[in-house]
Amino acid sequence: MILIQDGYMIDPKSGKEGNFDILIDGDKIVKISEKIEPKGKVTRINAEGLLVAPGLVDVHVHFRDPGFTAKEDINTGAAAAAKGGVTTVVLMANTKPTVDSEETLKYILDKGAKTGIHVTTCANVTMGMQGKQLTDMKKLAAAGAVGFTDVCPCWMRNWCDGPWKSPQSWICPSVSMKKTRNISRTTV
Hints:
This protein is α/β, with parallel strands linked by helices. It has four helices and ten strands, in the order ββββββαβαβαβαβ. It is elongated, with a radius of gyration of 22 Å.
């Protein structure tokens, strides 16, 4: 058993907030009280001055894996997230290759499953983030994509330089939003 003592607890589910002791048996919280004096062998953690809360969720991370692992990869990103109390992340899909196929999606999810935190990922709205052909969003959602994005796609990079020169060549965002509405996923 583990006893976390005197941590400042925030529990959004119960609405409890304040200094509490928390007794854990295996993977279950068995008691929360102002003071707990357990019987038997217990590992004590002094959490005085520390925050005790459910794991945080970061819904916009760039782990750069596959393709740009000199900057970050799934393992180093997940380790940094865990160190900061983040237990769930949603990766953006601007990788190389982009997350427009089940194969790349599977690579990310399989590697993420070995990190100790919940690694989820968005897939791309368009093939190669080119803005021309929609991905098979229904298939990618079934394979585990939690949302869809073309984060900083190449076809939008000149947005700040003036109006788009050939709007017929890109897919209107409303088209992808209509498509994801039918598969219960978010488009960002």
